TrEMBL record:
UniProt name for this protein: NAD-dependent epimerase/dehydratase family protein
Sections of the chain in a coiled coil: none
Gene3D superfamilies given in the database record: NAD(P)-binding Rossmann-like Domain
InterPro entries to which the protein is assigned, alphabetical: Epimerase_deHydtase, NAD(P)-bd_dom_sf, NAD(P)-dependent_oxidoreduct
Pfam family, one: Epimerase
Record SUPFAM superfamilies: NAD(P)-binding Rossmann-fold domains
Residue ranges of domain NAD-dependent epimerase/dehydratase in the record: 4-208
Amino acid sequence: MQTVLGANGPIGEELTRELYRAFTREIRLVGREPAKIHETDQLVKADLTDPEATARAVEGSEVAYLTVGLPMDAQLWERKFPVMMRNVIDACAAHGTRLVFFDNTYMYPGTTTPQTESTGFEPNGRKGRVRARIATMLLDAMSAGSLDAVICRAPEFYGPGRTKSLTNSLVFARIKAGKRPLVPVGAKTARSLIWTPDAGRATALIGNTPGAYGQTWHLPVDPHRRTYAEIIEVAEEVTGRRIGYTVLPLAAFTIGGRFIGPLGEVRELLPRYRGDNLFETAKFTERFPEFPVTSLREGITDILG
């Protein structure tokens, strides 16, 4: 049995599809309102802030994948994420279940220095500090030998379906709706974006590679990073129409955040948009050279074609 904790999000769904396709038909989907993707999926309702419910959700699992997402709300993150991580660590340790944690890069410094698995945590906001805290909780448990675990880390998403990110909502969703895309902070800096189906496939692969545990892995992205200006040029080629864009300066998020909560919540992430965002994945590509990575052009074509 392999269990997806937080199965309702786009990563949980893509992960579940890949587990079923390549590794196992014994899949348990855990969430507040889990829904089947395959007829054989086992559904378990559970609140991961409840230690007993978490233990029951994990029991009998060979591998558990923690892919829970929460709305962009710093208070909510501070209140729930550390409790969830503690409960999942304890449940996996108690049941001898290997843990795969799907993580993001909010704890990394917002600089142009290339990010690798050894990059130190230097969060510049409340949500980044929460992500640093829960990643450190797991790293400490791994170092103590409390459980067998692995961290799969991904940069900003883009992708089909319900994928949520600044790039999806401000750029691709607006282009698809025939609206002018809005580019956060700068159009001339290189972006590292991960295609959500690739993120799910890579997480499933690592979770089923015993030698991958005890480490952190950066999940694969198209190595030919493009700027937003170049991304929109590709969108023009895919759609066959001219697409203008508007750059939203940092001040727009600062002022807008006073009146629109979500704008204020993303402000701490904006330093990574002022310069090149270089998320390095050489470790993964060297270990899994046959893994097919979706190019940005292929992804944009899938979204807009």
